[in-house]
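Feature request, filed as a ticket because there's no other form

It would be nice if the structure record came with a short human-readable summary line next to the tokens. Right now we just get the raw output. Example of a typical job, pasted below so the devs can see what we mean:
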Amino acid sequence: MGVGLVGLVAKPGSGLAEEAASRVVSALRERGVEVAVERDTLMSYARFRGFPVFDIDRNPPGHLVVVGGDGTLLRSIQRLPDPSRVVVMAVRAGKRGFLLDVEPYEIEERVADFVEGRYRVAEYPRLSTSLGDRSLPCALNDVVFITKMAKLVKLVVYARGERVFTIDGDGLIVSTTLGSTAYSLSAGGPIVDPNLDALTLTPMNPVQLHLRPIVLPPDTRIEVEVRPASGPLYVSVDGQHLEDLQPGDVASIDRCPTKARIARFRWWDNYYERLYARLLAYW
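Raw output as currently delivered:
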């Protein structure tokens, strides 16, 4: 069964994203698919004026094409009211983009596959973070506790109510399997095979040199307590949402009730070859 309406989200202020998005729109319209443009995208690119408009955090279509880098995809999924009701096709536009598997040279082919349903839906668990009675947006990649102004952060980390370790350093990364190849990897964390579902705790530059990353079951409840003598820090959700933390604050991390759904075309083919090819692009 074909798709009747597809929403478009593109990274603002990017010539590469604008060109790729324009090709996506042309390919969709050639197949008789109506295109609606996300409000911020419409404001950034005059060429899409006149298209139907939608607000991604209020009334997104059931099928989205996101064009840009990892940040664009993470931000889009974070803003969706219920990602489990939306299938996202991710088009890479630029140097970055580990999470986006559609390359610019194959846009027309993949749009045809997307419209006709020739893809696999990969469902990704997310992390839910709460500070007292306040809930933060769910994280697809990671929840990061990180220093401000290069001051020493002092944390106590608990798993299932048991103390795992005390950290004096730059902070802590709590990552999903998908996020294991993001910030956690740069901080010395392990690459977690995509067929596994796990949480990884990666200390960031700890004074305690014996501390190493720890891999935990996916349903483990994590609690991070800011010790009284800690320097200023904040918690970052997928690098998109920031909250200041104070000494004595306790953040609880659990499984988010909704998953993200991304259309994958060749995602599982030669996963490690693809991963290292992307990593080698940074030099």
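Something like this underneath would help us a lot:
The first strand starts at residue 5 and ends at 10.
The chain has a mean pLDDT of 94.
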